[in-house]
Amino acid sequence: MTSFALLPGAPDSPVLLHVPHSSRAIPDEVRAGIVLDDGALERELDHITDAHTAELAERAAALAGLRPWRFVNRLSRLVVDPERFPDEREEMAAVGMGAVYTRTTHSAGLRPADTDPEPLLARYFRPYARAMTEAVAGRLAATGRAVIIDVHSYPTEPLPYELHGTGPRPPVCLGTDAFHTPPALTEAAREAFAGCGETGLDSPFAGTYVPLDFYGTDARVGALMVEIRRDTYMTEPGGPAGPGLDRLATALAKLIDLV
Description:
7 strands, Aminopeptidase, alpha/beta
């Protein structure tokens, strides 16, 4: 199974849509290390997967005036979460959800607490990080800049694992970074998603994903996380997409065109 895919866009597009959490796929050898039974695992995947976000990015790419590039994780975040820090900088490690999860969204055991993360980091996390770094470098070389738009979703009601789940949960949450998210990028997103309901900043999820080679050092790399509340486009948890997906794809395409 291919762990990820870089799907080419227009040669002169600086935009890279990043879709890290849309898949439910777990290789057999990884499944063997997960302690949940099959039914409990399916329920966990319903909660943890950003369902239909790969389709959302695909539709938006087709609608955009200048087709963006897409980097899509083909495996579940229960294999590894490519957006976590792989070390002590990761605050989610406090709830067993660092780069390799040992706890579920409801604080049950997912893997034994003494699981060695290194084999999974070596097999899945680091190759993903290298490929994403190369994808961003490719946009910089081709266009002189790169704009990472991270495509996520989140549940209407907070889940027990959320460290900052008590704040606002708007239809669209924009996660920002003080270094990598210029005000113009935030304003473009607000304009693009104006027809999708209220747009908030950094609640319930904050920050952006930037490969570590560029993080905090290369201002040519812009980044914005787009978190979409799931009731606006799908049946929760883990159900089918509804008509809201088309509206969101149109809005995301507008954001691509604005940046």
